[in-house]
Amino acid sequence: MSTGRIIIEGDVGMHLGEEMKGGVITVTGNAGSWVGGRMKGGTIEIKGDVGDYVGAAYRGSTKGMSGGTIIVHGNAGNEVGCFMRNGLIKVYGNIGQFAGIHMAKGTIFVQGSSEGRAGAQMRKGKIVVCSNIPSILPTFTVESIKPKVKIDEEKVTGPFYMFVGDRAEGGEGKLYVSQKQNQHLSFYEEYL
Amino acid sequence: MDLAINNGKIVEKINEKKAKVIDASGMMIMPGGVDIHCHIAGAEVNTGRLLRPEDHFRDVEVKTAVTRSGVGHSIPSTFTTGYRYSRMGYTTLMNPSMPPFEARHTHEELDDTPMVDKATYPLLGDWWFVLEHLRDGLIEECAAHIAWIMAATRGYAIKIVNPGGVEAWGFGRNVKGIDDSVPHFNITPREIIRGLCKVNKLLNMPHTIHVHTNNLGKPGNYVTTLETMKCVEDLAEENRPNIHITHCQFSAYKGSNWRNMSSGAEEIAKYVNHHNHVTLDMGQVIFTDTTTMTADGPFQYGLYRLTGNKWVNHDVETETSAGIVPFRYRRKSAVNATQWSIGLELALLIENPWKIYLTTDHPNGGPFTSYPTIITWLMSQVARKKMLIKINKRARRKSLLPSIDREYSFYEIAIVTRAGQAKALGLAQKGQLGVGADADVAIYDINPELVDPSKKYKKVRRAFKKAVYTIKGGEVVVKDGQIVKSVFGKTFWVDIKTSLPTEVNDDLKRKFREYWTVEYENYPLRKGFLHNPAPISIKAEV
Ligand SMILES: [Zn+2]
Fold first, then answer.
1. What is each CA distance from A80 to A75, B157, B384, B416, in whole angstroms?
2. B53 to chain A: nearest residue by CA?
3. B110 with B39: CB under 8 angstroms?
4. What are the DSSP calls for B473-486, one per residue?
5. Beta bridge partners of A71
6. Ligand 1 center to residue B482 CA distance, Å?
7. How does pLDDT run across B280-305, given as a tens digit for each residue?
8. What pLDDT digit, counting tens, does each position of A77-95 carry?
């Protein structure tokens, strides 16, 4: 899809908006996996839940979403933004494991909680988790506490712990997680 | 001129009233294409397929009434490989690197590669028994042993990859030149190459030893390549070739690092122009995304370090190694652009087309589907210039291509894509259309008497991409670039008769038990394993 608008009333299966370049797709129900896979531009908005691999690369490839916006009002599955190269993914519900795995650039924002392992092997880009995350990968280092984080044009109020990684990849990706919602991570503060 | 075909062979004449007639007037007729070196089957190729779903995803072949579906840009599935070669008028393919241990897998895939005759070369330059025999100076015993391996694996030629280096890699090491000692074996690459060259002669093999040099893919390696060719010079007889240097482009680099790497094609061409014991194939590089795969484990490890790509490295028990790394050759990369130039420089500077053959070392330099493009570069200065202006500036400045005005004729193309390859392989019934030859014929939609390939190179490319007719063993299998009939080809292997016993002796049987995961008794391929075997009987001198 390169231009125009599609409105889907109800649910939709896999590979919605794959490789789309422009235009708008709106889904009132849920969507399957691979929403916006290798997407280059445009907007996809899902009112319900989505499956795994939102904005991801095809299996074996390192070229994930390189532009555009995906907004999910419900929950999202695992490996959201896998090999993401640019663009924005917003999830207002909760997100599964390995959000932003192999991510090279772009932003993933999660209003709800993450099941963990966020940012595994990320090299650059930004992941923001506003609610609970069970733990941070040991290959991330804590850098500071930030009062606010900028997402697109708006500012989200924290405070957030800011981690940098994935150091195992020599990465400089930024992982922000809510300080208040993650008291169990307070031990990181002594390294600041 | 008419060409008569009967019973799968070219014949003197035929009853025209009863025959099917193909009007090929105004077209070009060649023997079916022969590829002396293309990785199309076996464990390594298939691991490459597993590694690269994204390679399949972007290139899909839909099933037709006569063909199966398939996938793959750089490593197509077996059926698709057969169809694509056949559409280009190719009828004989040589799979160049089979770990003897993986012979079953290799032949199963070759059996599933339709449309073409085929054969495969077992990797023997680092096989433990070969190293032991050569170290102890037991050339005749080594020959008898190799006769056994050829039968056990249904092999066709002796393949040598980074002799000694592949064995050293099992211990995390490599050899640096042909006089470097191989750990634990106290033998040098020079001794391995010379030893196997003598063995090849003793066995009366149809092809020469098929060598992937030491230091392949490293700046400065053209010296190693020259030394490798020289090291068997004194073993040559009657101007007959006794060594084939494969994908020579990858072994023709000057310089001491990747920044000052440049072409060693001139030196290699000069040597080859003055000596008749060497044949080569190009290993031409294409600017595309492909999958590199060789038995040269240390080289592939280096490539992984260079690219950071996903990779596979494998140690095949006591026999050989293997590595796979996806790779994209970029026009704007000085190194890649120089590699592109070197392949063509070799083909253009080596005067005698019977000495160098067109390959990409598929899929290492690029997929075989790019052969028509390479043909245009060989035939047209304009086509070369068109690519030259698009490549990296530094590479362009250093390239020898602007100073070369040679353009291949259609005859020369016929030599480097079939006749020369068939001759080097000792396949007398291939690569020619004389009476008695196999009726493997390609008909291309181009009139060589009217078309100037130097100017009309696009027309040439189009013609070679899709044969109007491909005839395999006397049957029309391709018409207008489409497969119209799926046929099984033959699998050639050398059935060597020796007077020395070829069976493995008790000592070696014990070693099989100690070192292999497969028992000696289960190791050889049994009769009936191949779908359509075509053994070539040879009488050895031992
Ligand atoms: Zn090869």
1. 11, 50, 45, 51
2. A60
3. no
4. TTEEEEETTEE---
5. A45, A90
6. 28
7. 999 999 999 999 998 888 899 999 98
8. 999 999 999 999 999 999 9
B420 — alpha (psi -120 to 50), left (phi > 0) or beta? alpha
Smallest CA–CA distance, residue A124 to chain B, in Å, is 16
Task: List helix spans (H) across B183-221.
Answer: 189-202
Model confidence over A11-66: pLDDT tens digits?
A: 999 999 999 999 999 999 999 999 999 999 999 999 999 999 999 999 999 999 99
Question: Where exactly are the structural domains of chain B?
Answer: 4-494
Element (H, E) at B341: helix B334-349
Provide the token pair at B137: 């100076």
Q: Is the dihedral of CA B93, B97, B103, B108 positive or negative?
A: negative
CA of B360 to the centre of ligand 1 (A): 9
Instruction: With cut-offs at 50, 70 and 90, classify the pLDDT of residue A152.
Output: confident
Contact status of A9 with chain B (Cβ, < 8 Å): no
Name the fold adopted by B4-494.
TIM Barrel (3.20.20)
Residues with Cβ within 8 Å of A18's Cβ and at least 6 positions away in sequence, in order, are A34, A36, A37, A38, A39
Mean pLDDT of chain B: 94
Q: Does A168 touch chain B (CB under 8 A)?
A: no
Q: Which residues of B touch A57 (CB under 8 A)?
A: 54
Note whether A106 and A65 are within 8 A (CB): yes
Nearest to B469 by CA among B440, B436, B489: B440
Q: In angstroms, rounded to a whole number, what is the distance separating the alpha carbons of residues B371 and B358?
A: 8
Which residues of A fall within a CB distance of 8 Å from B54? 57-61
Q: Which residue of A has its CA nearest to B58?
A: A58
Residues in B whose CB is inside 8 Å of some CB of A read: 51-55, 57
Peptide bond into A147 cis (omega under 30): no
Tell me the chain B residues in contact with residue A60 when contact means C-beta distances shorter than 8 Å.
51-55, 57
| pTM of the full structure | 0.93
CA B246 to centroid of ligand 1, rounded, Å: 7
- CB-based contact (8 Å) between A59 and chain B? yes
Does the interface ipTM go beyond 0.90? no
How sure is the predictor about B249, in pLDDT bands with cuts at 50, 70 and 90? very high
Residue B427 has pLDDT above 90, yes or no: yes
Q: What is the pLDDT of residues B61-107, one digit of tens each?
A: 999 999 999 999 999 999 999 999 999 999 999 999 899 999 999 99
Query: How far does B149 lie from chain A, in Å, by closest CA?
Result: 37
Q: What is the pLDDT of residue B503?
A: 66
